[in-house]
Design a protein that fits this description.
By secondary structure, the protein is an alpha/beta fold. The strands form 3 sheets. Strands 7-6-5-8-9-10 form a 6-stranded parallel sheet, with helices on both faces. It starts with a helix and ends with a strand. The model has no long low-confidence stretch (mean pLDDT about 90).
Length: about 290
């Protein structure tokens, strides 16, 4: 966006992450302009400052561009509020977590622009799809599988299509399953006996991944919460019909009529989860 607007900027790549990064670090950790826009999660912010030095922030107006998937911040995130002057968030839902901490919070929508793939004959076969009407869901185990709710989606699919030979299929496409082997094994076990529910854990190049979304007949996300909901936006961008939970960040770009929205009750997260127990998330209506 800065490049498109002609705003001078200098990028600093922070590579302390478990995610698959394509960006290549260039130059040192210098902040030559008055404003720093820090696209680092709040819990990583103190570690970043320790790595680059407090001088990186001193004398600058520091903005945190933050994502989170709860209406309550975690204890390890709270230190970060003292390191920024204001917060930018991509969706209205995210204001629930970051409001009330003494800092201005501004919704700055993310530019949801994607390189739409060019359809070609044989795409379905090349991407592992057959002639069945195929539902697709993609997620990253690093993004908390319980939040993404693939088992809830599998249950909904089984209720909707009790016959495994009924001419439909559901692909649960993930990455980083090898890091969360126990959770992935639980998903595989949870869909056993249904050959029409296919678990695929593989990292695809961006072009092939979007081509898979475009080739699928329907994209489904029964998420509990999403700060943004990037994969549902990708599906809309490539023209694949979508089904999604009527809750959280995706509602900013997914109004009624643009997708089939699944009603959900807002419930407490409760103990034993990655997110604060007193926070809230969605319980999608599986029967719906």
């Amino acid at each position: 966006a800065f490049e498109a607007a002609g705003i001078p900027n200098a990028a600093v790549t922070y590579d302390r992450t478990s995610s698959n990064q394509r960006a290549v670090a260039t130059g040192g950790a210098e902040a030559p302009y008055l404003i720093n826009l820090l696209r680092i999660t709040p819990d990583q912010r103190p570690l970043f400052v320790a790595a680059v030095g407090e001088g990186f922030l001193a004398g600058h107006h520091n903005i945190g561009l933050w994502y989170w998937e709860s209406d309550v911040v975690a204890p390890q995130q709270r230190e970060a509020f003292g390191l920024v002057d204001e917060i930018w968030v991509a969706t209205q839902y995210l204001t629930r977590a970051f409001d009330g901490h003494g800092l201005p919070v501004t919704v700055v929508p993310s530019p949801l622009v994607f390189e739409a793939p060019d359809p070609a004959p044989g795409d379905r076969q090349r991407l592992g799809l057959d002639d069945r009407f195929t539902f697709l869901f993609s997620f990253d185990y690093l993004s908390v599988a319980e939040r993404k709710n693939p088992l809830g989606l599998a249950e909904a699919y089984r209720k909707a299509f009790p016959d495994p030979d009924g001419g439909t299929a559901l692909i649960l496409k993930s990455i980083n399953g090898e890091i969360f082997a126990e959770e992935m094994a639980g998903l595989v076990h949870g869909v056993s006996g249904r050959p029409d529910i296919i678990v695929r854990d593989e990292l695809l190049p961006a072009e092939a991944r979007l081509a898979l979304v475009a080739a699928a007949d329907c994209y489904v996300s029964l998420h509990r919460p999403e700060g943004l909901g990037l994969t549902t936006a990708e599906a809309m961008a490539v023209g694949t019909p979508g089904i999604a939970t009527a809750y959280s960040g995706n509602l900013d770009f997914m109004p009624e009529g643009s997708a089939l929205l699944v009603p959900a009750a807002e419930v407490e997260v409760g103990p034993g989860h990655y997110y604060p127990a007193e926070g809230h998330w969605a319980d999608p209506d599986i029967d719906a």
